[in-house]
């Protein structure tokens, strides 16, 4: 797949807001110690083709142009648009349980591959939140919708939190799974518990080694097991990820450029902290949201701690519904698919 140049995000009011103070700097991970931890023997697997992420099911695959790039979406149903955004280290398929349920309930359900993932374009730059938000806004417009309910998990949740401030005209409401508001995350990095929970994020700042571990080693498995409620991954106990999900996510990460692009999200989030683009982002999302918000979080999430998620209420506005899901870890749409689907449908119906 050819790497394309990315167009920058469109000019928005955030550029005209005075810079906010730089947030707390994250700790530095010792390079020598991390190298020892992450060096692994390569795993030999068959070559991966992008067609593998176009998984068959009760949905249609298509490609749409937005913000100077091409994005893959899986679509089903007719009605108001509900756009589903995945997280790391996954792709659109993480919403496979919710897509048909949303369609059956009378919604147009669309799950997209974010920039750098799956069958979407993988340009060398554009992994800052303002550009990623412009991607999502552009996809909504290209799909012919005036607005959408945006549902996001993990990085998709980070974008869902950000969209009402960055692209208010196209964001009707947001539902967020397993992610605190971006400013709640930045603030929580000053607390020891959440800072230790983000150890993987600081390791991802190293050059080359994280990419090698994701694409040629067991990095995907370690994240899926380590961030879920049952760290064993024993499918006999119904534990996530199970053999099929593990195989699909490992192979999707081995597509050309995906390992590097997916890590650029984390690198921008950390390295932008003292920079002007980071201050512009903080200024853009600092006001409380004015749209309905559904926040779902796993009781046993070891990556984004429930206390951190709950602190998002400061930025969530006065239309927040918060649900803590017992027995679940970070990968809510797959660890607790029935519960997530039921809460999502109930909340959507309440929007009118």
Description:
Helices cover 39% and strands 14% of the residues. With 352 residues, it is of the alpha/beta class. The chain has a single domain, classed as Alpha/Beta hydrolase fold, catalytic domain (Rossmann fold). It has an 8-stranded mixed beta sheet. Helix 4 (155-166) links the parallel strand 5 and strand 6 (171-177).
Features of this protein?
single chain, 352 residues, alpha/beta, Rossmann fold, eight-stranded mixed beta sheet, 16 helices, globular, disordered N terminus
Quickly describe the structure.
By secondary structure, the chain is α/β, with parallel strands linked by helices. 39% of the residues lie in helices and 14% in strands. The chain has helices at residues 31-38, 98-104, 129-142, 155-166, 182-188, 192-197, 199-203, 209-216, 219-226, 242-253, 258-271, 276-285, 306-310, 313-316, 332-335, 337-350; strands spanning 60-66, 69-76, 81-85, 108-112, 148-153, 171-177, 293-298, 320-325.
- CATH architecture descriptor text: 3-Layer(aba) Sandwich
Q: From the helix content, strand content and strand pairing, which structural class follows?
A: alpha/beta
Globally, the shape reads globular
Order of helices and strands: HEEEHEHEHEHHHHHHHHEHHEHH
Number of helices, where a helix is a run of at least 4 consecutive DSSP H or I residues: 16
Write the layout of secondary structure elements.
Blueprint lengths: L30 H8 L21 E7 L2 E8 L4 E5 L12 H7 L3 E5 L16 H14 L5 E6 L1 H12 L4 E7 L4 H7 L3 H6 L1 H5 L5 H8 L2 H8 L15 H12 L4 H14 L4 H10 L7 E6 L7 H5 L2 H4 L3 E6 L6 H4 L1 H14 L2
Parallel strand pairs: 3-4, 3-5, 5-6, 6-7, 7-8
Antiparallel strand pairs: 1-2, 2-4
